[in-house]
Amino acid sequence: MSIAENLLSIKNTLPEHVTLVAVSKTKPVSDLMEVYNAGQRIFGENKIQEMAEKWEQMPKDIEWHMIGHVQTNKVKFMASFVSLIHGVDSLKLLEEINKQALKNNRIIDCLLQIHIAEEETKFGLDEKELTALLSSEAFQQMKNIRITGLMGMATFTENQNQIRKEFTHLKSIFDELRKDASSKDTQQYMSILSMGMSGDYQLAIDCGSTMVRIGSRIFGNR
Predict the structure, then answer these.
(1) Considering the chain, what percentage of its residues have pLDDT values greater than 90?
(2) Residues 136, 138, 70, 126, Cα dihedral to 10°
């Protein structure tokens, strides 16, 4: 099957409320254009420089999502165009995004990354850190970022029960925050739950995901 056919077969399996991020890291622009021409407009990259190069070369109606771990010193290279930053895992990083967004006269949408996996290698906030961040005065002062939801990655394991447990846990944190947010005047707040990748996206959708990040199933293995 071609890349475009892969994309369409995945899209046919996704419920209407689930957004597909085509994970295009390490792939050449020609592959991305094949997916673009098949109708895909949201691409996910994990290296800011690579994303910026592709942004320069490709059509301007694409939404670029930064899905990798973000170093604060690199934020400035994407602040003018990035649509959504998935992996925000510290107040320090949020402050830098806010600062660079202000310089570019933008409000940048962010997802807070929650640590749900049993692996230490995964980044993310725990629940205490999440609560502390959201209630901090520094966070309240930020006018150029918008928290549109949460993101999490399950443990890399064959154990479906464990993955389901981790996804369900993230969904319950998300639901709690949405309940608290119902008093907020903005609809954007906590509307996205980004969980699920090529190997586990169907399980993630069953557990309440509204955004899946799929790479190898579209572009083939790296």
Answers:
(1) 88
(2) -10
Model confidence band, residue 188 (pLDDT cutoffs 50, 70, 90) = low
Mean pLDDT over all residues of the chain? 94
Task: Tell me the DSSP string of 131-175.
Answer: HHHHHSHHHHH--SEEEEEEE----SSS-HHHHHHHHHHHHHHHH
Here the tokens at position 117 are 């996996």
The per-residue pLDDT for 184 is: 55
CA distance 51 to 66: 8
* Residue 73 CA, distance from chain mean position: 20
Contacts of 102 (CB under 8 A, 6+ apart): 143, 144
Q: 214 burial class (0-12, 13-18, 19+ CB within 10 angstroms)?
A: buried
Can you list the positions of beta strands (E) in the chain?
A: 19-23, 42-45, 63-66, 84-88, 108-113, 145-151, 192-197, 211-214
Q: State pTM to two decimals.
A: 0.94
